[in-house]
Task: inverse folding
């Protein structure tokens, strides 16, 4: 059984409490890291300029306080391993659903459970839907 690192916990603490429950469970099954929770205006502007996000401040779900989005990945992180990121995402989505929370994943924005039609991949991104 694994747990989140202190750095990951700190980042998770900037997120909606529903994420705490989801990722503290996921971390017991798959060793993982929280990469980002709340994102301030400076970081959002920088990410927008780099094309890492399509939304300007304050419209990103990471810009809410607490954050309604979290970036997380299984360890060790391999950004090119789409299959592993997808497996992780499936586990996260299922864990959330079991807790009554609907998430949207950046590998399937339209939530049709098809990944080939995803035009903007953000495979570590999860956000809470209303
Ligand atoms: Zn994100």
Result:
């Amino acid at each position: 059984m694994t747990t989140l690192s202190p750095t990951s916990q700190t980042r998770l603490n900037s997120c909606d409490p529903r994420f705490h429950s989801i990722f503290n469970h996921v971390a017991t099954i798959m060793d993982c890291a929280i990469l980002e929770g709340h994102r301030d205006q400076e970081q959002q502007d920088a990410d927008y300029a780099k094309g890492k996000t399509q939304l300007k401040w304050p419209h990103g779900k990471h810009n809410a306080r607490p954050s309604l989005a979290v970036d997380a990945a299984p360890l060790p992180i391999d950004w090119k391993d789409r299959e592993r990121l997808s497996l992780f995402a499936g586990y996260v989505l299922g864990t959330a659903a079991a807790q009554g929370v609907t998430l949207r994943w950046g590998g399937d924005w339209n939530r049709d459970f098809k990944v080939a039609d995803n035009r903007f991949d953000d495979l570590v991104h999860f956000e809470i839907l209303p």
